[in-house]
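== Sequence entry ==
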Amino acid sequence: MITKTNTTEEHKVSVIIPTYNSGEIFAECLKSVQNQSYPLHETIVVDNFSTDNTIKTAKKFGAKVIQQKSNPALARNIGIANATGEYVLFLDSDQVLSRSLINECVEKCKDSKVGMLRVPEVFVGKGFWSVCSAVWKNYYERVEQLYVTSENLIRSKPRFFIKEQVIRVGMFNTVLLWGEDDDLYSNLKKISVEEALAKSKIYHYEVTSIKQILTKNIRYGKSMPTFTQQTRKKILPSLSKHALLTLREILKDFKKSPTIIAGCAFLLLLKVASVAIGLLAGLHQVRNSQKHREIDSHQMIQYLLTFRKSDITMKNSRYKRNIFYILLESKTEQT
């Protein structure tokens, strides 16, 4: 793993990065972690069996690599389970840190009651559509700052945490393929963990093609029904409001860069369509899952009725096991 001598042994930081075919930016990500002004303890890369040079790149920078079939939520939980630092910083493989970020986060946590920190993001694009996507997201971040007191907006979530607080609330919900950070944040707020905002930034590199952008948004849309089912939160009104406010802010600057702004507007239409496609697929998936649970519940009831009519008592361990397995399967389906 990436390791340096830490003069403040009680304030070690573990950086956790889920990866899958992470590409060229991953090297820049690891380099920015290695070049932090704060003495670095370890970097843990949890890889979903990449087929490109991701593993080679991680080992080149001395990161500890764990390969496990996983989604981002599970990958982060695996990282937490293997982390030995007091603090954890969750990164994506396409993010680059400003040099003093970790130092600032540690200082804010150790000198106060803060248990988690938000980190401002600046989105960066390479190529026309990537730039359009980055510009849109930067305006999206600006709307969050302009409407600080407004409700029903999508707020950025913390990335730096006291590890024990994350463990205390059960870590990330691994059922969620989208919104797992929002769910974690909500759980931490329920136990009154205080938060703060860092001044240092993360530079987030956007994907370079329309196909990649649309594929990502279809995946997000597909995951939304599960997110709503798991968290009981209605996310679409907040997304819609934030998007409309962002569009209004962008159009104000149309004369400054008409081509890019027009590209942002066109990309918004494509994103809305791709999210809608994913959402329909996700709703269908959730409904099918509910039908299976109804069938399993009916079978369990019939089994228990049959069991009650028989002369067999619960002292028979074989029947105890059967009921246990049925209950377990029903619970597994629900989660």
Observations:
- The chain has eleven helices and ten strands.
- Residues 294-334 form one domain.
- The two ends are 34 Å apart (CA to CA).
- The CA atoms of residues 14 and 88 lie 5 Å apart.
